[in-house]
Design a protein that fits this description.
heterodimer, A: mainly alpha, 13 helices, 2 strands, B: two-stranded antiparallel ribbon, 11 helices, ABC_transp_permease (chain A), cell membrane (chain A), transmembrane helix (chain A), Branched-chain amino acid ABC transporter permease (chain A)
Amino acid sequence: MKAFTVSKAVTALMLAGLVLLPLYSQASGNIFILTLFTRIVILALAAASLNLIMGFGGMMSFGHAAYLGIGGYAVGMLAQEGVGSGFIQFPVALAASAIYGLVIGALSLRTRGVYFIMITLAFAQMAYYVASGLARYGGDDGLTVYKRSDFSGLINLSNRTQFYYLCLACLFAVIFLIWRIVNSRFGLVVQGLRSNEQRMQAIGFPAKRYQLVCFVISGMMCGLAGALLANNTDFISPAVMYWTRSGDLMVMVILGGMGTLFGPVMGAVVYLLLEEFLSQLTEYWALIMGPLLLLIVLFGRGGIMGLLGRLNRG
Amino acid sequence: MLLVVEQFLNGLQFGLLLFLLAAGLTLVFGIMDLVNLAHGSLYMMGAYFAATFAAWTGSFLLGALLALGATLVLGIVLEMSALRHLYGRDHLDHVLATFGLILFFNEAVRLIWGPAGLALPLPAWLTVPVPILPGIHYPAYRLAIIVVALMVALLLYLGVMRTRIGMLIRAGASNREMIGALGINIKLLYTLVFGLGAALAGLAGLMQAPILTVQIGMGENILILAFVIIVIGGIGSIRGAFLAAIFVGMIDTLGRAFLPNLLRQVLSGAAASTAAPALSSMLIYLLMAIVLVVRPEGLFPANRR
């Protein structure tokens, strides 16, 4: 392993930028950039969780945004019912995501390939319609979260800088966890299953059980992102579970580089910044974004990380 | 009784419309192995073309014909310029690239036609109710959709099963290298199939246009339904797509029509009227989940290799 590579340098630069961002925001008085990056960090967390099953596990989930909604609704619904403590809200969000992941994972993993893509999509759409039917919690219009999760003085989520660092800490923790998982025996089995499921089964690994556990872990991570997202926007609506949002997450992962540790973070940063930049440039930003995605697929195999890797060799 | 017959026909009409969309999708999927999320965009373009051309020419039929041609051409251009390069790539690449195309088409429509929706008015002769059974009338236009879609389905079946081109298409689906080695221009064949799929999607869009408003994003919800259909029917199987489409159309329509009343008998009025739309939207996905759990390859898996 080389000590210095271009991709390592760029990753380090990006992470340093993320850590130092609040300082810049304070110095320049630019509050907007901090709000923007809080959203980016949260969605990067969601993309990283998707990458665990998609990049390392080979399970192409097209319904990952459902967890964003489940985590978000756990916070929103509890807040509505008067339970404001984050020590209750966040564990509930994680538990709800785990249960959802367990049920749909057990059913979906019976299929493979495109069928898997479609069945995860179908379950996410179901979750979307369930949320739309929750009349008590705003139904289609969504639910305003009047009070952010309360961590009884430990950390104040209404303080922008503290909240940003909480999200960033969660992101780093999740990436660290993914790194540990991927390099553990469990992670190697899951990656082995991606390469050749039959062979892994033949040497005695219960394939579905390993994949299911991986699926649930990824879902819980994304549920955490959902809980943070609801706190960030002070609002949760079925729209966060819509299938185009799942598509966004996939785009981030593939754009950054599937199956790399920091690729999804890079993808989220680039995708959302590009969206922001283009939408300031022109109202019709998607007119540029769409073909850009097409070009990235056609010419940029391996995403940004793959590109940086090639730079290094060339 | 009247309501039941009417809703039954509505379900059939919706199902046939879904079949037009799903047939193109399953052809492209089964033959080129391409996941085309932008299929819904072609549906939308068909509706926009029809609204525009009908306004220009002043004739609904002429507008519809022109729109059909326009989506065919659009499909061919799309295939030659972009999608052709995606064959043989990973399914994820398809998802990402065609997701980009959806963004592009939605925005292009906003730029050209503006954010407000369009209306496609029907000519007078299509708005009269037609007696179908003694005492039961049904809108002529919906009846026309049923007839046209059934005819297209029949033509498609005959075309694929009884003509030389259809034979080549089926051969291409089962072994593309072999048919290429036998001297068939496989590139041209693929372009043709994609154009056909696009025209079918356009036809579905322009026929649906007078019933709903023509608006941005209209293709996305129905695209998901079409995907559900081809997954239930078995990817690549036209017969499966046909049966699944009718099934899904029925369940969706009948669910929306009768579920609220059914629920009202168990739940309080307010709870039922909020739960019913969500539940009837869910029904289809529930059906798909059940089918995939029981038969992971769909009901009628196409026999491949």
